[in-house]
Amino acid sequence: MSLKINGFDVELVDANPPGSEQSGPYSGFNPSKTILHKGHKRPGRDDVAAFQSDVVWERDFAVPMRDGVKLRADIFRPTTEEKVPAILFWSPYGKDNNGVHGLHLQPGRFGVPFDRTSTYEKFEGLDPAEWVAKGYAIVNFDLRGAWDSEGIIPWVGAQDGQDGYDAIEYIAQLDWCSGKVATAGNSWLGIAQWFIAAEQPPHLVAIAPWEGAQDFYRDTLARGGIGYPYDLMWGMLQDTMVGRGKAEAVIKMLQRYPFYNEYWEDKRAKVERINVPAYVLASYSSSLHTSGSIAGFNEISSKEKWLRIHPTQEWYDLYSEYGTNDLQKFFDHYLKGAANGWEKTPIIRFSVLPFDSSEPAENIETTKYPVPQTKQTKFYITGNGKLSSTPSSSPATESYQSDIIPQGLDNDPEELVFSTKFEKPTWLVGYSKAVLYLSADEADDLDIFVQLRKLTKSGKKTLQLNVPAHSLIPPVKDASEVSDSCFLKYYGPNGSLRASHAVTKIDSTKNDSWPIYKHDRQEKIEPGKVVGLEIPIWPAGMAFDAGESLAIKISGHYMSPLEVDGLNGKTRTENKGRHNLHYGGEQESYIQVPLATPFGQ
To answer: Where in the numbering of this chain does the Xaa-Pro dipeptidyl-peptidase C-terminal domain appear (predicted)?
Structure first.
């Protein structure tokens, strides 16, 4: 069994067989058709949601691909004779409550009560117990090679796009389908939608990629050309893939091909080819999807497209009443022709976070992203822990030990912090960057990490809970009782860059505040030589009151918790020795941030 992608031999690993201890729960391979009656609950689970209507459940339904491989799907559809549109979900995570992935991954269930879902939903997808009653068929696919689908499990790319095309066209011609198909879902299910829609299946009517990166290398796996600590979470997923054959070993491929090439190009969705209506979702709540979601919205060619940047964790939002009703309105409009006024929905709705226990401002309306009402503003590093609107004329240097292993708990040493205090209420909304002059005492390369933070009036660091403490299951008192996961705790937007990759910067006037790098080659630095670097910082929405401060933290390590508490402290480093930050005089180190007066003030 072998796999080639764009001429590259792909490293493979054995997938965990369904039913093995490593695979987690497995309900078995059982092609069949069953009626689930209104009020049905999964046997033995009185605590879950009941089906809101009678449903036909077709298990392990075989769908052929163009190369003869058969993929398996669970189809949930109304029992009526009326043809209905289908919503398709695509991932390797299993169906019918199979696998290790689910809302139980963190204490608190991300604020989603047990009785909110039926457990028949695909992880990160819509619940058939609810959505079939709304007049839709829910089609949950195990992608190629996953579980009982045939083939080799791919890690996003053209293969998913082609298979998704074939799946949509096959489902559309089934006798119960109206011929209209949409895609939906979060995270992997969102990523896959970019690739599928880019293939332009004729029966694809609309997409809802909710929080999905669209350039796997640059957006999430090797941000800034650095493979750590992001490889920890993706490596964990690589090791938990379930199937009856092999899986693409993307972490091994990153080790073999650390520079961007045609293998990684296959994992960049050609989003400019997408022309169907799209409802795109983003948030600030993870290190996985924010930049890719927003870039995907901006770059698709769809004439009818909407972006909502919400203030919470993605699954908390997915199963919220607001998110559910909003998505149904979108789908009803395009899949059923409902004249419900969806077209009047603001093109962009964004949120800003208070970094305290108060309610975030959300659904703030604008027309473009970056937000036109913001002004790119520079703050220069001037020493004594200060940022200033004017640069210092006196050259100075500060240093930090670059090669410590961070614990991700917001108390790591060897971090430089500089701040500026706002005199009036201010929003920071959009893309930022740090322009820093750096040198390494004894290394020919350096990895730089930066983070924007909000400080209280007394100078204390703040954080934002992505799920309110009182909404967790069970509720907790405050952040001290919340798991140290970036899904639940957000410190502020991060940025990173490997110095040797700076030579690959792409000249672009499209977004000066967001430097983009090809990462296709390197040019080592000389030990002791000062280099100027432009570090992109992820999009953010931060609210400051008068007397509160914006800070930048600078170090040689990642400064947020990882996705799973157990991964904190497990990362590695490729830095060596001390790094020096140079500022003042001819070496004007600064941050550039998008500021605005709060809307309505």
So the answer is: 328-592
For residues 411 and 503, the answer to whether their CB atoms sit within 8 Å is no
| The length of the chain, given as a count of residues | 601
Provide CATH 3.40.50.1820 ranges for the chain: 4-345
Query: What is the distance between the alpha carbons of residues 266 and 586, in angstroms, rounded to a whole number?
Result: 42
Please tell us whether the domain made up of 375-596 is placed in CATH 2.60.120.260. Answer: yes
Please report the DSSP string for 465-509 in residue order.
Answer: ESS-GGGSBS--SSGGGS-S-TTTEE---EEEEEGGGGGGBPP-S
Tokens 């970094």 label which residue? Answer: 355
Output the CA torsion sign for 379, 383, 386, 390. negative
Q: Which two tokens stand for residue 385?
A: 């822990």
pLDDT tens digit sequence for 93-136: 999 999 999 999 889 999 999 999 999 999 999 999 999 999 99
CA nearest 476: which of 361, 560, 320, 357?
357
The answer to whether the beta carbons of residues 593 and 427 sit under 8 Å apart is no
Phi, psi of 404 (to 5 degrees): -75, 160
Among 199, 9, 210, 176, which Cα is nearest to 85's?
176
- Whether a cis peptide bond, with omega within 30° of 0, leads into 78 is no
Q: From CA 445, how far away is CA 440, in angstroms rounded?
A: 7
**DSSP-assigned beta bridge partners for residue 396:** 583
pLDDT digits (tens, 9 = 90+) for 436-445: 999 999 999 9
Report d(CA 406, CA 413) in Å as an integer.
Answer: 8
Does residue 168 sit in helix, strand or coil?
Answer: helix
The alpha-helical segments, DSSP class H, found in 199-305 are 230-239, 250-256, 262-265, 290-299
Q: Which helix (H) or strand (E) holds 198?
A: helix 188-198
Res 1: pLDDT: 81
* Beta carbons of 408 and 490 less than 8 angstroms apart: no
Identity of the residue numbered 39:
G
Residues 6+ away with beta carbon under 8 Å from 140: 73, 74, 75, 76, 89, 95, 96, 121, 122, 125, 128
Query: Quick count: other Cβ atoms within 10 Å of Cβ 388?
Result: 15
In a 10 Å sphere around its CB, with 0-12 CB exposed, 13-18 middle and 19+ buried, how is residue 237 labelled?
middle
CATH assignment of 4-345, given 3.60.10.10, 3.40.50.1820, 3.40.50.10420, 3.40.1050.10? 3.40.50.1820
Give the separation between CA 81 and CA 134, rounded to whole angstroms.
15
User: Longest C-alpha distance within the chain, in Å?
Assistant: 79
CA angle 305, 309, 315 (to 5 degrees): 105
Give this prediction's pTM: 0.97
CATH 2.60.120.260 in the chain, residues?
375-596
What are the tens digits of pLDDT across the range 153-201? Answer: 999 999 999 999 999 999 999 999 999 999 999 999 999 999 999 999 9
**Cβ(283)–Cβ(308) under 8 Å?**
no
Question: Which of 435-439, 511-515, 537-541 is the least confident region?
Answer: 511-515
